[in-house]
Amino acid sequence: MNPKTNAADTSRAAAIGRHQDQAPSPQKKDSSRQAKENLNILIVKLSAIGDVVHTLPSLAELRRLYPEAHITWVVEEAAADLILGHPRLDKVLVSRRKSWIKDFSSGKFAATLRDVRAFIRRLRCRRYDLVIDFHGLLKSAVVVFLSGGKRKLGYDSWQEMSGLFLNEKIPEDMNKHAVDRYLDFLRYLGADVGKAEFVLPLTDGTREQARRLLEQNELTEKSYIAVNSVAYWETKLWDNGKFAQLADAIRDRLKLDVVFTGNDGRDAADILSRMKGKGINLGGKTSLPVLAEIYKSARAVITTDSGPMHLAAAVGTPVIALFGPTDPARTGPYGEGHTVIRADLACSPCLLKKCPTKECMTAITPEQVFAALERIIRQQSNER
Q: Structurally, how many domains does the chain consist of?
């Protein structure tokens, strides 16, 4: 034993990362149990919305594995609402990385440095026994380094030098869906991983906000289809004119309202201007938890490959996802009851953010999407 390592440190180290076939000896059980109760664990998953949603099952398993541990999560501003107030977490640290870069670029040097130093102090206020880097990029590696954690676990990867500060690594199986890939960390730690559980910080308050929003627009639960037309990559976007045709068909033929969501409502406004009938624009009017409530109350959600797609799947609503440059096997809507529509092209998936033709998305027709939705509605009717 290292002379600088006391018995408590030894038992704490033994409590983390023990595989299921490595049972503790009887004389160590009590100290191991106490160590598990005193563990400090740090999750590093900074962004984006979909990636944070994908990590939620790992949080659920982590809490089951270490029910008395203190668990902290570091996240960036854009996805923070998904974990602030989360029942499985003890603390959330919000990194304002993008704001810091913007403020620093605009000349606010002193204020930015003060804010960064304050964040680092908050990060280091606990002595972490285990830090898990679910992100695997340089920006997360910096947080892992600054945390000062004992055991720094991540993927055996040098993408953006992400493995530089790790002292414990597992292989990353890119043939798995992201949800299952992240759960590999919990399997490594000894968890008996079951069905993925997506717990969101939904409360009576978020339900009431969603209820009021629906009431203001004369909507009732399960009386509408939610549509998300936005995505960060331009190659993931579908034509707004096709969204308009689809929305009109839903209203005319299925007699269901169509609710458009998005970050600011401008894209939805453009689609509404192309429609013959009426639609409802909720873009920019919800927080992420309230958006989850809106999706939960919908009959189905039609969406591009985006964070809202993963949010809709997480609350169990049937999703129709339009895929082009990305691989649905790795980042599609997780779980049963969802439909992926994509063109059968040799170049797809290409993972390109720019494309001169965007043929993989332009090849998808409103008729294809409507047919998929009609099947879901018919199945729902038969189950009633």
A: 2
